[in-house]
Amino acid sequence: EEEAIIEEVVKKIEPTVELTTESQIRGQKLYSKCITCHGKHATGKKSQKAPKLAGQYDWYIAAKIKQMQDGIWENKVMYPYIKKLSGEDIKDLAAFLSAYQW
Hints:
By secondary structure, the protein is mainly α. It is 41% helix and 4% strand. The protein is built from five helices and two strands. Strands 1-2 form a two-stranded antiparallel ribbon. Helix 1 crosses helix 5 (87-98).
């Protein structure tokens, strides 16, 4: 009796993003510094203890970054990357990340 060998190919589902505003385009450029920890598509990395950001609400992302800048929410790993972001930078980064669709 022959055994059927079934090969299952699992494709990792990545979120997609369509950049429709200048703010999102600027945010994508800013995000290039975040890829190492949060991943190419902002899906997060357990090994870095970095959460998924893709598709998160823009207001939530902006609030968390601001809280880290102000020392309300301490994150020593993130601080060097976000400490010099302007209000506009934060808005653009949040606009880019929230544009991801799952």
